[in-house]
Amino acid sequence: MFNKILLPVDGSEPAMRALAVAADVAGRYDAEMAVICVYRHHSPLESSLSMVRATDPSPPDKALSEHAREVVRVAAEELGRLGASKVRTMVKRGPPARTIVNVARDENFDLIVLGSRGLGDVEGFLLGSVSHKVTSLASCPCLTVK
Fold it and tell me: What is the number of domains present in the chain?
């Protein structure tokens, strides 16, 4: 049923919970997995929409890129520890939700598994969330892990 699973990660606890679920699903279907971390250069006002955050409000892309690479490396190691054998990683720059959806579409993923930060209805409506945006924009099924 699921041959290719996309797992967006940002190093957060919700992303790690999603990782465990994705590893379980991949194991059940012998699916290929891709771990993606999306970063973008952003202002402090945009920080709530970014998958990767930095303490400096205007860090150079290199620092964000390096942090994203570390996030996917750690995630891939954890997937290996959980028994996932077909795992590749990718780091992309751009708006997180749109980039995730585009990668899923362009590479024909069957499922996106992602963590939810659990924004409340009002905060989620005002700020939006990557998981809500991905779920509403993706053409493949999405599994949001709370």
Answer: 1
**Residues 15 and 115 sit within 8 Å (Cβ to Cβ):** yes
Give the residue numbers spanning the domain of 102. 4-145
> Tokens representing 64?
């964000």
Of 144, 58, 137, 64, the C-alpha closest to 103 is 137
pLDDT tens digits along 96-109: 999 999 999 999 99
**Domain CATH number, residue 120:** 3.40.50.620
pLDDT value of residue 47? 46
d(CA 136, CA 125): 13
Distance, CA of 143 to CA of 123 (rounded, Å): 21
